[in-house]
Amino acid sequence: MAETEKSAGSDNTEDILAKIENKSLKIESLIKQYKPIKAIKIALESYPPQDERCKYANWVGVHKALMAIKDVEGILRSLDPRYYDILMKYKCPSSSMGDRTTCDQRLKIHEKLTEKADFVTT
User: How far separated are the first and last CA of the chain, in Å rounded?
Assistant: First the structure.
């Protein structure tokens, strides 16, 4: 019985990873079409479960969408505030990873996101 449950959980993880991969392909397509707002929204949909592989795979898509942003303030103005919390979940653990350009972009997004979040909560 335990093996059946373990197998079902594994299949579930594989299904989730397949969905994340499809989502990542959509994100890449939207970035190529210069539609960063749609790319960010799709990237932030359905925060993945606690499985580390799923979280990392989803983070890759979010990261691609974030690095495509040219107008950080414009993007954040376009997002529903419900996305701010999800975006912060991705920003905080990844702040120290990547090259200088990547880190600079994430810090810029973090700064603007913090300003927006503070505005929303006051």
Answer: 52
- For 35-66, the pLDDT digits (tens) are 988 998 998 887 666 788 888 888 888 888 88
Do 82 and 42 touch, CB atoms closer than 8 A?
no
- Give the separation between CA 120 and CA 77, rounded to whole angstroms: 11
State which CATH number among 3.40.50.2300, 1.20.950.20, 1.25.40.190, 3.10.28.10 fits the domain covering 2-121: 1.25.40.190
pLDDT at 7 over 60: no
Q: Which residues contact 79 (CB under 8 A, 6 or more apart)?
A: 37, 40, 41, 87
Cα 29 from Cα 57, distance rounded (Å): 17
Identify the helix (H) or strand (E) that includes residue 48. Answer: none
Alpha-carbon 46 to chain mean position: 10
Residue 55 · residue 94 · CB < 8 Å? no
